[in-house]
Amino acid sequence: MLKSAVIAIGKEIISGITQDSNSFYIASNLSRIGIYNRFIMACDDKAQDIVDVVNFCLERVDVVITTGGLGPTFDDITIESVAIALNRKLYLDTDALRFIHDFYSRLHKEGKIESGGINQKRMKMAYLIEGCKPLKNSVGAAWGVYVEQNGKHVFCLPGVPKEMKPMFEGEVLPILKDLSDSSMVVENFEVDINDESVLGELIDRVMGKYPVYIKSLPVGFDSSRMGVRITAYAQTQEQAKQRIEEAKRELINLLNNL
After folding, report:
1. Across the strands, what pairs with 107?
2. Does the pTM of the predicted model rise above 0.90?
3. pLDDT of residue 122
């Protein structure tokens, strides 16, 4: 089973100015295709912080996805920092450069910005990581990158959700679906007990017997019932469903025998 990490990059994230919705979106989609997301992390848009967090994740997971820091401003340094973490150089991608030129020229022609074409700040976005697969942006100017290195897969995506989502769905998901060798199934149900400590002992017994993850979902002592969520990974959805059914049956039997 592939393991992954999502890294949200930006001072506005870690300072609480902007709420990070990208990580939730990406992690939920990773789970749906059977990839086990181990970490959701956030860091400042400082080169050493980005390098440190990327290296931390590369030591522990197979897939690393960053969001944010691909734009034209001084603190958009994700591409450069990830290149350092991977010990790779940058190169000027002529296709990206042409795309950026045409993107801003079109906006200028439409009267939406002061000037079109390329300037130094805009050119910065055309520098990608050596050996990468460029990920095209269908909404904004900045392209993302995909780098495969030593069996690890690194993706850098924009931070603006309306740019990130189409890139993730159109460019990243197809790659990850081909890489993933497992499926995940989740089932929620309710049980007739409201004491999480008692239910927890039974959950421990079931999890010790079946390869599933079981989470109790208490709603308070005003209710006589409690929610339960069972998650299973397997090579196929059918196998995952079978694991859940076996674990669910065992848990209900234990509850009935209290």
Report:
1. none
2. yes
3. 96
